[in-house]
Amino acid sequence: MAYSESQKKASMKYNKKNYERIYMYVFPQEKEEWQAAAKSKDISLSEFIKQCVNEKISHDKGRQ
């Protein structure tokens, strides 16, 4: 079934209300490494980055 324009609009509205976007600049080599690591775990690049950040936060909290 095709993704209708109204479905697209509803998804965009939901995302705008419930999520924040984070933009970052990385070197192409870094992105390639991150994508390879994400692929090896069978997850998206976004999910990989979120997991790394959350692990860093947890690690740093343990050092306090």
Structural write-up:
This protein has 64 residues and is an all-alpha fold. The protein has a domain of 42 residues. The chain has 3 helices and no strands. It is extended. The model has no long low-confidence stretch (mean pLDDT 94).
How much strand content do the residues show? under 5%
Order of helices and strands: HHH
Low-confidence stretches: none
Counted beta strands: 0
In short:
With 64 residues, the chain is an all-alpha fold. It is built from 3 helices and no strands.
What descriptive keywords fit this protein?
64 residues; mainly alpha; 3 helices
Write the layout of secondary structure elements.
Elements: H1 5-18, H2 28-40, H3 45-62
